[in-house]
Design brief:
mainly alpha; 5 helices
Length: 148
């Protein structure tokens, strides 16, 4: 039973890392890692013939992401319950950080198109730190299948 669980965790980690890599590539190619790139992507640019995003357009993008982020974070944190991090302050902190960062990652575009352009850095910040916290969580899971 334990060996099957370890295989499941290993494959989850492997595909999660592939997901994070593809997320980074897509973010870099579509939006970019600058505040100007974020603003251009969401607010448009007439000179480059880029149309601004509409609330309906953003909603079409974020609706599947709400489910996907929620499921991904829930499964990742659920696996942490089987590690030595169970019932620790670090687990509560990781769970809170993942929730807050995924929330900011998903809902920052609404702030941007509603005039809060100064929050463009928050989109980049939430993206990077969500990826970092997920990688750290996956590292904890990987360590647990090797040593626990």
């Amino acid at each position: 039973m334990q060996k099957a669980y370890n295989f499941a965790i290993f494959y989850f980690i492997l595909f999660s890392i592939l997901l994070l890599i593809s997320n980074s590539i897509l973010f870099a190619s579509k939006i970019g890692f600058t505040t100007e790139g974020v603003l251009t992507y969401y607010l448009g640019n007439e000179a480059l013939f880029i149309a601004p995003k509409t609330p309906g357009g953003i909603l079409k993008i974020i609706l599947p992401h709400i489910f996907a982020f929620g499921l991904f974070v829930m499964v990742t944190v659920h696996f942490l319950l089987f590690t030595h991090k169970k019932r620790t302050k670090e687990l509560r902190l990781l769970t809170s950080a993942l929730f807050i960062l995924s929330f900011l990652e998903i809902f920052t575009p609404f702030a941007l198109i509603n005039g809060f352009e100064s929050l463009a850095f928050l989109k980049i910040f939430s993206f990077f730190f969500f990826e970092i916290v997920i990688l750290y969580t996956l590292f904890i899971l990987f360590k647990s299948i090797l040593y626990d």
